[in-house]
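User: Sequence in, structure out. Go.
Assistant: Echoing your sequence, followed by the structure tokens.
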Amino acid sequence: MSFLSRLVTLFGLVLLAHAGYSAHEHTVLFSNARLSSSTALPQDIIVEVLVAVVIVSVGLVLGAEKLKPISWRDWAGEIEREGGARNPYLSLEERHGFWDIRAKRKEFADWIREKDVVNKQ
């Protein structure tokens, strides 16, 4: 995080803490007064909370690392070169208890080739 992003985040957190303290004081003040119409928070506290959340969010986004481009092809190639041990989808690809379609297709293609060879002779 750069200095500017930390400063913006700190300012937003101080503003958020002040809004929380103001909301607490308002609640305590009007809980003793027994005024049912004034129990809602004032608009300035609500606006202060929203502004504080936006400022904290901006500070965190400014301090985040740059995003790396997604290259699934490189990631998948790296996993295949390692033998597929790190593949997060390995359990989905294995499908225990189901037919191995690729093996069955190869078996069928071999059977057809053998049948054609026998018929041609």
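User: And one key feature?
Assistant: The two ends are 77 Å apart (CA to CA).
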